[in-house]
TrEMBL record:
InterPro entries named among the record's database cross-references: DUF306_Meta_HslJ (IPR005184), HslJ-like_sf (IPR038670), Hsp_HslJ-like (IPR053147)
Signal peptide feature range: 1-23
Highest taxon in the source lineage: Bacteria
PANTHER family, per database record: HEAT SHOCK PROTEIN HSLJ
Organism: Pseudodesulfovibrio sediminis
Domain DUF306 as annotated: residue spans: 41-146
Keyword Membrane: no
UniProt keyword terms in alphabetical order: Signal
Name listed for the protein in its UniProt record: META domain-containing protein
Record bears the keyword Signal: yes
Length: 154
């Protein structure tokens, strides 16, 4: 009887330990924080804006961002194409001045585009989580959240 209880306790302890170890493995993913890994993950992909900090972006317009190896960036602001420069050092990201075409697309889209480009100029850090790119600043809660569309979003 004593051996049987000890055996049950040992089996229970092993099962509990296995569950804890497996749960820990699945819940932690290492995100790159070094410049080379971040650059490799973001360059050459078209990123689609999903959230402008805590606000969802209208699905009527596809606001994009594309990082290039030569430290230039381009994209679509909802009405106009834009381009500019960026600097990346570790997980610190800063955008230079942006230039854009000058089409007029109405007040709503124009305001959204202005907000998008203005917020890009405030970005301080970049964070990657699975298929999402998060651009953060010191002023606002949340992040500018982008996806690549590689997972069936687009």
């Amino acid at each position: 009887m004593k051996i049987q209880m000890t055996l049950k306790w040992c089996v229970s302890a092993v099962l509990l330990t296995s569950i804890v170890v497996l749960a820990a493995c699945g819940s932690h993913s290492t995100q790159p924080t070094d410049e080379a890994s971040i650059r490799s993950a973001i360059v050459g992909k078209v990123w689609h804006l999903e959230k402008l900090f805590l606000r969802d972006v209208s699905s009527d317009t596809d606001l994009t961002l594309e990082f290039k190896n030569d430290n230039t960036v381009s994209g679509f602001g909802g009405c106009n194409d834009f381009n500019g420069t960026y600097t990346l050092q570790d997980d610190n990201l800063k955008f230079g001045p942006m230039t854009s075409t000058r089409k007029s697309c109405g007040a709503g889209i124009g305001e959204q585009e202005y907000s998008y480009l203005t917020f890009l100029s405030t970005i301080k850090n970049v964070r990657l989580e699975e298929d999402e790119l998060h651009l953060l600043n010191d002023k606002y809660s949340g992040a500018m959240t982008f996806t690549t569309g590689d997972q069936g979003f687009w």
